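Today's session is about reading a structure prediction critically. Students often jump straight to the picture, but the first step is always the sequence itself: look for stretches that repeat, for charged clusters, for runs of hydrophobic residues. Only then move on to the predicted structure, which in these notes is written as discrete structure tokens rather than atom positions. Here is the chain we will use throughout the hour.
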Amino acid sequence: MPQTESHPHPGSVPEAAIPGPAGLPVLGSMFDLRRDSLGTFLNARRAHGDVVRLEAGPPGLRSVFHAVFAPEGVQQILASQAANFRKDHPLYEEVRQSFGNGLLTSQDADYLRQRRLVQPLFTKRRVDSYAAAVTAEAGALADRWRTAAGSTVDLVPEMNRLALRTVARILFGLDAAAAEDAFHRCAPVINAYVVRRAYVPVKIPREWPTPGNLRARAATDELNALCDRVIEDRRTARGTAGATADEGDDLLSLLAAAGNDEDGSLDATEVREQVLIFLLAGHETTATSLAFTLHLLARHPEEQARVREEVDRVLGEDTPTAADLDRLPYLTQALKESMRLYPAAPVVSRRAVAATEIGGYRIPAGADVVVAPWVTHRSPELWEDPERFDPRRFAPEREAERHRYAWFPFGGGPRACIGQHFSMLESVLALATLLRAYELDAVDQEVPVAAGITLQATGPARVRLRPRHGAAG
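Below is the predicted structure for this chain, in token form.
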């Protein structure tokens, strides 16, 4: 564990004086956080400022944590003092136990070793080579939409399916269908189990044969078996064909090849853990961005028309490629604005190693700390009329004027999302493909959400489809 010399300023306010909601006399803010954690954080910021102390749970089992909302404080936690804020929060431990110790959850030497091996797989050149898979899956979805009942679709499951099929195709190659079926069946079970365990004051041991434990174990075993089977198939094929054979350019083949290097840095279990984490983080986050971008454009027809004009003008009838990413700036701005309003990771947790000062307050050693894109992205000091959808906020000159951590949907610092370029590429090309094929009219005007491992829509985001010229071929 890294030791960080980070001492509070002599003039900092002690922890006990940090403001925060009183909550109920015995349980504090426990029920508020369970019912609506995102709303609770927003209200806490409005009432108490940019550093807030919250308590939840009965005496003896009470959780105390500190929420930091100002971009300067976010920068301290994620970037400038990142070594002092570790992924030791209970949520990460539960994700680690269910999905393995991949890049999302690993730390210290394990993280550095994994990142070094995986980084070449996410270079711009490598990611750009995935563009054809993205547009093929988006085009297939546009074709399927022609038979939608009543010409109406719910964007939440549709974008989940699209993002999962895309990531599974890239990760698993020809095994995309099997991965899709297994993940749709198993991931919701594991996600709900992880979040529930992370926030209960007393945890039942995972080994006990309770119904919940047994369901989660069966789902985890199924995903592990799927990954192990495909990894073994890849390695067998490489061994049969010889080390120089090109047995596939999908990410799983590349990870398996990394595991065969002389340093043996990734064994079969570690390859599987990376794949599971990429499936979890890589499909749910991008699906959220896609669904809410399309829904916001459906609710704002004038912005949809402006995006579509750009897509038509730049692409014509051509299939979009990675080279078109920079030629679709307004579509990219609309995507970034939807990620401001609906960040896929709405709350990010850390634990302080040493005491330090943030925003004039003393944060003690061992304290649980959260930063919340959901709240910072809605700060009226940073964003004029923050609830309004306005892609013009992300024009280059306006982005240059803002603090780096006024907008951080991909995190930041040394633990910034390794798949950022892939997510942006996938999102822009998929959006361009779908918006060229259809005009969208919103059926549901508002979509309720809640914070899980990622942002979860708790209601439908339905749109009515109107095919355009040459839609879906």
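Discussion point for the tutorial: Residues 15-99+346-384 form a domain with the Uridine Diphospho-n-acetylenolpyruvylglucosamine Reductase; domain 2 fold (CATH 3.30.43.20).
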